[in-house]
Amino acid sequence: MTTRQRPFRRSNRTYSLVLALLVVLALIPPHRAQAQTYNANTDWFMQGKFGLFVQWLYGGGDITGDWNTLVNNFDVDYFAKQVSETGAKYVIFTLGQNSGYFASPNATYDSLVGRTASTSKMSTRDLPEDLYDALNPYGIKLMLYLPARSPSDDPDAVAALGDPTPIYDHLAPQAFQAKWESVVQEWSDRYGAKVAGWWFDGTYNNGAMYGKPDISQAYTDYTAAHNFQTFAAAAKHGNADAIVSFDPGLSVEAPMTTHADYITGEQNLLQYVPSQYNAAPYSRWIGGVQWSETAYQGYDWARNGFKYSTLDLTNYFSTVTNQSGVISIGPNVSKEGHINSPQYAQLVNMHNAIAGVGPGVTVVEDNDAGISYSGTWLTSVPSGTGYSGNNGHFTTTAGSYSEYTFNGTNVVWSGVKGPDHGTADVYIDGALDNSVDLYAAHRFVNTEIYSKVGLTNGPHTIKIVARSDKNSASTGTYVEVDRFNITTGTPTVIDDTASGFTYAGTWLTSVPSGTGYWNNTGHFSTTSGSYAQYVFNGASIEWYGAIGPDHGKADVYIDGTLDQTVDLYNANRYIDDQIYVKRGLSNGSHTIQIVARSDKNAASTDYYVEVDRLNSSKGTPIVTWDDSNSQLAYSGTWSTGISTGTGYYRDTGHHTTAAGAYMQASFTGTSVEWRGKTDADHGMADVYIDGVLDQTVDLYSEERFTDVAVYRKQGLTTGTHTIKVVAKNSKNVRSTNYYVEVDALSFQ
C-alpha cells in the first residue's frame, strides 16, 4: 500500500497490459507454478464482490495521544453496522503499518525487539478479536493488513529485527524473514478461522522503474529457507483456508507468485477490468490467482472527499463484479471507527444499484408471465433450497435464452453459480453487454450474477443466452434464472404541454421565462369546474404546480374516484412545487384528473390552480425537495447567497457557520438523503432521525464537491419521519472553517 514513507510511485504506463502479464508470469518459477493456483477458498471472496480496505493507521503522523486509549475508543459495533449497510462482505483492517504501533498484543514481536509491558507498542485491547465479534453476526469476514517489512518509523524495531535501511532500497535478509514469519504466525494462531485472509504490503517488484532494486527477489528464491511459500504458510498456520496476497507495487496487476491466492491489485485508478486479461467468458483468474483491485475512495488513503462520482464508481463496480472480479475500496474511517458519512452514503447508493436492493426496487420472479423462455428450460427446484420464491428456471442447452422487458434504470439478474455451471451471454436492448462464467467450486444459490446500471429511464430488454462453452473445471453447463431486480424509482416527467394532457374549461398558458416553472411552461385556471386530465402507466403519480397567497383549491380524482381535496394557499409563493402524491397503485394504466373548485382558503385573495408537470413511476419515485422548499424549516443563522452555475441543485443552497443552527423537515418514506457540499472550509453536523442522534457528519474534503449525498438513512418504517441537521462547533483538524450546507433532501 502506498504510504508516506514509500519511495515508489506509479508513473503512467505506456507498455501493454498483455506484455506486463507475460513478463510477470515468466518470473514465476516453473516448478512452483501450480502451487495454490485456482484456490477454491477464494469463492467467498469472489461472491462477496467488494469489501472495505480500512487504512486506520495510515503512516504514523495521525497517531496522537495515548495508544491504548486510541485503540479502546474504536466503536466496533457502530463500525460493523455501517459496514453492513454499505453491502461490503469483508473488511481488510490495518493491524499495523509504519508507526510501529499495532492494534493487538504479540509476545513474539515484543520479545524480538526487546520490549516489556511498559515499553510495548502493542495495544492491550485485541481490536481484531473485537472486530470479528462485531462483524461476524452480519456475515462480514475479517482480513488483516500488515507490511512485509519492519515498521520504518520505529528505528529501534528495524534494527532489532535486522532489516537494513532504507528498507525499500534493500532486499529482506533471510534472518529478518524468519523473524517476521514468526511474528505473523503468532497472530495467525491467535485468530485461527476468525481471520479469513491477509494483505501483505512491501514486496514490490517495480523498483527498476525508479532506479531501485526489485525487492520481491528476496521472496522468489525457492531454494532459500524463507520465501513466498514459507511466508504464506506462516499466515495460514492458524487457518489453512485463509487467503493471502502480496503487493508488487502500483504498476503490475498480475501475481508475482502462485503462493498468493488473490492479487492485491493496488492501482488507485479504477480503470482495469478482468476482461483485459481473459477472453470471454471472462475468467476471474490471472495466472491461477483471483483477480481483484484495491483503491481509495477519497482524495488519498484515509482522506475525505470523492475521487470518483457515484455513477462512475457504480459503473466500474458493476463491470468488474459482472466478470467475477473483486474490489477492495478504501473510505476514510475515523479513529473512533466511523466511516466518513458522505463516503458511506456513496457506498450505500453504489451497492443498492449493483445488488438491486434498497428504495425503488421491484423483484420479478423467474415464473413471472412477462419473462419469455426459448429453447429447453426446466423448472423443478426442490423447496427449501434457497431459491427466491422456491422456484427457478434452468437450462443446459446452448442457445436457449431468457428475455424480459422492463421499465427502469437498473437491472440485476440473480441465479446460481456452482461446480456444474456453464457460461452465458447477456444482451441489453439487443447488444451484447457481457459474457459471464457461472462456475464456482462451491454452490451459491439466489446470488447476484449480473447488473446493469445507469440506463435511461424507460423500457429496456435483458436477454440471457446459454453458451456452448464452460470453465474447464466445471462438470456441467447449467445456466439458471432465479429473479430480476428492477430499479424503477426514477420518475417519468410529463410536462404540462405534453400531447396526452386534456384541458377542459378555461386555462391560460402565459408563463414568464426564467421564473422557475418546469420547462418554462405552465397551465393555470381560476374557473370553477375547469379540469386537467392525463392517462399514465405506472404505480404512482405526482402533481407539481404552484402554491401562493392567491391560490384556491382543487379536487384530485384517480380513475374517476375523488382521492383528495388540495388547498393551494400559502403565504409565500413557491413554483414547481410538489402538490399531490398518489402511491401504491396497480402497475398499469390510470387516469388523474385535477378539477378547480369554487371555494378557497379564507386568507387567499384568488382561486388560481396551476399544473406545471406530472411525475409518473412504475415503482415508488424519489421525491426531492430543494433547500428553499417550504417543507424545510431553518433555525439560527443561515445564508442563501449562491452563485448561478456553481453546481448546486436548482442553483440554490442554505449555509451556516453558527453552532446550533439547524434545518428540520418531516417526510413520508422509508429512506432519506441529505444533499450538500464538502470542502476544505467545512465543519461537522449532527443528524437526528425522529429526535435521536443518528450520525455525526464530517463535511471536510481537500477538494470541493457540490450537490453530493453527505448523509443517507435507509430501512425506516413506512410512515412519517423527521430529519434534523444541526451545525456543530467542531471540525476536522485540517478544515479552515465550520461551514454546513443544505442543498436538497431526497426521500422515498
From TrEMBL:
A Pfam cross-reference name: CE2_N
Superkingdom: Bacteria
Keywords assigned: Signal
Boundaries of every Carbohydrate esterase 2 N-terminal domain copy: 650-729
Signal peptide extent: 1-35
Domain Glycoside hydrolase family 29 N-terminal: 72-247
The keyword Signal belongs to this UniProt entry's keyword annotation: yes
Record-given protein name: Alpha-L-fucosidase
Protein's organism: Cohnella hashimotonis
